[in-house]
Amino acid sequence: MKNYKKYILIVIFTSLVILLTFLYLSYRQVNFHALRDPPKDGEIIKKSLMHEGINRKYLVYKPSKINKNPPLVIYFHGSLGTGENMRNLSGFDFDYLANEYGFVVAYPDGYENHWNDCRRSASYSANLENIDDVGFVKALISQLQSDFNIDPQKVIASGFSNGGHMVYRLAMEAPESIFIAAPIAANMPVDENLDCVKSELPVHITIFNGTEDLINPYEGGLVEVLGNKSRGEVLSSQKTLNYWASLADVSLQEPTITNFPEIDGNPETKVSKISFSGQRDVSLYRLEGSGHVVPSKFMNFGEILGGNAKEISAAEEIFSFYKSLTLKSSMSE
């Protein structure tokens, strides 16, 4: 009898250990959280505008001090997301930079949590109903110019995943509306699945893609989200970069390679940047060992999306790109 009770206790203890281990591993898979609180000295404002009969909502981060005619960052969320979700997923990086440099950040909501990007076969409502998101973005810029006196010639469009694809749409169809395009975790669709009109005009663009991204394959191929394969195939990161480099009239044989120092303590992640400079500046950040994430030093992503190369923060790199371009422009005047 004693041996039987001992056996039962061992079984119960072992089961608890297995259960706790399972819960811990599951938690690590889906544990998404910012590693810092949002800044306290700015203001987050909920706003909306009507476009084509649809009430489009967006958040605005207004720093305590705004420069005269400041730049505007528009940050587009990914599939099933919201503007507020995108703000959190980035570790509030742009908000902190806005406090430092006095610019405005907008976090718009997509139609039914998606953007009408360039992927013809995508099954979400924004695509099926052909929502005019380019028109919405133009209206948003105009409204923010009226409300905060932003400079419409200094619009930085960035986005994650589906939001990154929305950035490609703006770069292709409305390059005059943005100063910089900065897609994250997104490659351009293959031509057979492209539902955008290419203006074939060059833009300043900087791309951030992870080599271990299981959703947006770095080397190109089928995009699959939770079993949904309707988004179709995309080009490789290199071919995506080459497309924009060709428009900028640069020699693909003369890239500038930048290797970033290892600072995150994880030897499995490395960051390098391939850059070209011509009529416009174009670059690709290769996030080796990183997955379907927004690169940030202040964000923890669940392991289900892959690693996070914390050697860089995308927001910091994007705004540094902006500063270098404005400096170059002022020196040429």
UniProtKB/TrEMBL annotation:
GO molecular function terms listed in the Swiss-Prot or TrEMBL record: hydrolase activity; L-glutamate N-acetyltransferase activity, acting on acetyl-L-ornithine as donor
UniProt-listed InterPro entries: AB_hydrolase_fold, Esterase_phb, Plant_Biomass_Hydrol_Est
Family matches, as Gene3D superfamilies: alpha/beta hydrolase (3.40.50.1820)
Keyword Membrane among UniProt keywords: yes
Coiled coil: none
An annotated GO cellular component: extracellular region
SUPFAM superfamilies: alpha/beta-Hydrolases
EC number: 2.3.1.35
Keywords of this entry: Acyltransferase, Hydrolase, Membrane, Signal, Transferase, Transmembrane, Transmembrane helix
Record field: transmembrane: 7-27
PANTHER family according to UniProt: BLL1128 PROTEIN (PTHR43037:SF1), UNNAMED PRODUCT-RELATED (PTHR43037)
Name this polypeptide is given: Arginine biosynthesis bifunctional protein ArgJ
Organism whose genome encodes this protein: Candidatus Micropelagius thuwalensis
Gene: argJ
